[in-house]
Specification:
The protein is mainly alpha-helical and 140 residues long. Helices cover 83% and strands 0% of the residues. The protein is built from 5 helices and no strands. The chain is extended, with a radius of gyration of 20 Å. The two termini are 23 Å apart.
Length: 140
């Protein structure tokens, strides 16, 4: 590997990381996860702590995955961590459900109500096609 190859690989790695990180942050912003969490728990003054926790968790998860870190934990600790992961997935699913409730309202206001079924099917088939492409073509 030449120096130019190394520089190109580093550039692509940093660019990919920035793109994925920006996408994750955009998802959290679009879904309003942190303000919604603060609203539901009536803890507006702790919104900054939620942001710090989300960023810290992402950073620690990335470092652990990058360096293949493994922790041997007691089953009780593993259950607690699993519970926290489940809470996060539940919050994400609830936020996505709220976003899907926006689609019929948007379709009605834009006069696309007759095409709503086609819009939803296009989203579903696009997701399925992208997954199949990733599994059978890209992953090889």
């Amino acid at each position: 590997m030449t120096v130019l190859d190394g520089v190109i690989i580093m550039f692509l790695g940093v660019a990919s990381g920035i793109a994925v990180g920006s996408g994750v942050i955009a998802l959290f912003i679009v879904l309003d996860m942190i303000p919604r969490l603060a609203q539901l728990t009536r803890s507006y003054n702790k919104a900054h702590a939620y942001e710090v926790a989300m960023i810290s968790g992402s950073l620690i998860g990335t470092v652990a995955d990058f360096w293949h870190l493994k922790m041997r934990l007691l089953p009780v600790v593993s259950i607690f961590v699993g519970l926290l992961c489940g809470v996060f997935i539940g919050l994400l699913a609830a936020a996505l459900t709220e976003v899907l409730n926006v689609l019929p309202i948007l379709a009605k206001r834009l006069g696309m109500k007759p095409y709503l079924f086609g819009l939803l099917m296009a989203m579903v088939f696009g997701k399925v096609a992208g997954s199949l492409f990733d599994w059978f073509v890209f992953a090889k």
